[in-house]
Amino acid sequence: MPETPHDTDTVVVGRIGRPHGVRGLATVEVRTDDPDHRFAPGAVLLTDPARRGPLTVVDKRWHSGTLLLQVAAPSGEVYGTREDVDALRNTLLLVPVADLPEIEEPDSYYDHQLVGLTATLPDGSVVGEVTAVRHEAQDLLVLRRPEGGEALIPFVSAIVPTVDLAGGVVVVDPPEGLLEL
């Protein structure tokens, strides 16, 4: 179980990777649709593990499609060397769910809204629980099957016709054989 820095729900918006150069820049694996806003200088990001943060973005730039950040510790001290940044490697960068903007599109969801939903067939029989959402060639729901193992369900309206967040259910209507893969 990850350390939680506080009692609020959070979502991962990035993960610190390897250092870039010698001046304290870190590569960041982006996990947000709005990195320019989320990682703007001055932004404060919670961390997992919590003891590494919160971190404040000091500088942000893009290099060959990779986000580079320079961050400061809670003390205000800037991570200024390659070694400093390497100590932050694999730190998850988090923001409180309450800070996320409302999604305007009716059939769009944040991943954290889908994780934990019970997946049922149209007849109501349970086929699993959503444990993750993968963003590959297309979005995929990862289901933990009651009998063990996982199933990957393309997250498209033809196969997932109903998402009922209030009811805690997602209805899947897979083509024959999809759940047996």
Write a structural description.
Helix content is 7%, strand content 40%. It is mostly beta strands and 181 residues long. The longest helix is centred in the middle third of the chain and has 5 residues, at 82-86. The model is unreliable at 1-7 (pLDDT under 50).
Characteristics:
mainly beta, six-stranded antiparallel beta barrel, 181 residues, 12 strands, single chain, six-stranded mixed beta sheet
List the helices and strands and how they pair.
Elements: E1 10-20, E2 25-30, H1 35-38, E3 44-48, E4 55-63, E5 66-72, H2 82-86, E6 92-96, H3 111-114, E7 118-120, E8 126-135, E9 139-144, E10 150-154, E11 162-164, E12 169-171
Beta-strand portion reads: 35-45%
Structural class per helix/strand content? Answer: mainly beta
Shape: elongated
Query: Termini distance?
Result: 29 Å
Overall pLDDT, averaged? 84
Q: Any idea what the radius of gyration is?
A: 19 Å
**How do the SSEs run, as a string of H and E?**
EEHEEEHEHEEEEEE
Number of strands: 12
Helix content: under 10%
What is the oligomer described by this structure? Answer: single chain
Sheet bearing the most strands, described? 6 strands, antiparallel, barrel
> Strand order within the widest sheet?
1-2-5-4-3-6
Count helical runs.
3
Name the poorly predicted regions: 1-7
